[in-house]
Specification:
GO molecular function, one term (chains A, B): zinc ion binding
Largest interface: A-B, 44 and 44 residues
Order of helices and strands of chain A: HHEHHEEEEEH
Family (chains A, B): Belongs to the Fur family.
CATH class of the largest domain in chain A: Mainly Alpha
Number of helices of chain A: 5
InterPro entries (chains A, B): FUR, Fur_C, WH-like_DNA-bd_sf, WH_DNA-bd_sf
Protein name (chains A, B): Fur family transcriptional regulator, ferric uptake regulator
Largest sheet of chain A: 3 strands, antiparallel
Oligomer: homodimer
Keywords (chains A, B): Cytoplasm, DNA-binding, Iron, Metal-binding, Repressor, Transcription, Transcription regulation, Zinc
Strand content of chain A: 15-25%
Strand order of the largest sheet of chain A: 1-3-2
DNA sequence: ACCCTTGTTTTGAACTAGTCAACTTAAGGA
DNA sequence: TCCTTAAGTTGACTAGTTCAAAACAAGGGT
């Protein structure tokens, strides 16, 4: 495809900079990465990159809709590039791996709570908590727990 | 009713202490209170109560199932006493007020993602984001924003 | 009614994720 | 190439929460 990240950035009015391209690269490789993972990963291409810059880049990407921020309870925020398709997430209680899952009940019925109590709802956020396949094997669970932290986000659907 | 908090605590094997009763009282009055609100509220009955103690009490209550912890993205954790009925939450983007909402699609279908990707799911957490009735009136929005912080949790269904 | 065990509270420090502000750098249109 | 302004850098700082050791008290046993 000819739609490069540089193009996508310019389309949204953002300048094309090395930190931004690095962060986008890391996010392509780690579909659910936290800020720390992104800093570490992006330093492969840009060794002096600071965490604050990454936070700035992520805020910019999220605000123009190129990235989405998810915050599973009890864990640092994760970022993903899959946007605009109203999908949800499976989170493993044991190792923290995140997988994508399409909306459970069709198109976007998520947006219709049974009783909105006067609220105007614009988004439904769904997190399914459970155990990933690897963590269901008790013996393997411990070692997997450490591996999974390294490859956080490697188990996307 | 004759099921006092003291009873409920003993039933679960927890000792009955003043900090615990105070916290339970505050939670009864504020159905979605954060730790800080609880500390402040509980000090009405127990002025020397420390935040750490409240965190300890809340952990104890959550671990025996007397309370539930919810963590809306970007906000401190909230605690509620309504447990065991798989209900969800409406959160106002403007003022942070939280309201309860029953499971959108019947009994517990929330537990069935369309494709579980090998996960064994044990809970579905749903957060509906939007604007509460008060924050839908632009003119009033600003002043409401401050009020609502004080009465956080006052808008339960 | 008292004592003893063990769970709780207290006290104080520490930690993590993330934010803020002032300054420097560089993207990209003129 | 210059200039404007967005973006990156640097460093201090905060909120929310957790950890650890010592003091305390709930409630069962005697």
């Amino acid at each position: 495809m000819e739609t490069t990240w540089a193009h996508r950035l310019r389309e949204t009015g953002l300048r094309v900079t090395r930190p931004r391209l690095s962060v986008l690269d890391v996010l392509s490789a780690h579909p659910h990465a936290d800020a720390d993972t992104i800093v570490t990963g992006a330093r492969a291409q840009h060794p002096t990159l600071s965490p604050q810059t990454v936070y700035g880049v992520l805020d910019a990407l999220v605000s123009v809709g190129l990235a989405r921020r998810i915050e599973p309870a009890g864990a640092p925020a994760l970022f993903e590039l899959r946007v605009g398709d109203n999908h949800h997430h499976l989170v493993c209680r044991s190792c923290g791996v995140v997988a994508d899952v399409d909306c459970a009940v069709g198109a976007a019925p998520c947006l219709s709570p049974s009783d909105a109590a006067g609220f105007v709802v614009d988004e439904a956020e769904v997190v399914f908590w459970g155990l990933c396949r690897a963590c269901q094997q008790p013996a393997a669970a411990e070692s997997v727990q450490f591996e999974a932290h390294e490859i956080r986000g490697g188990a996307s659907a």
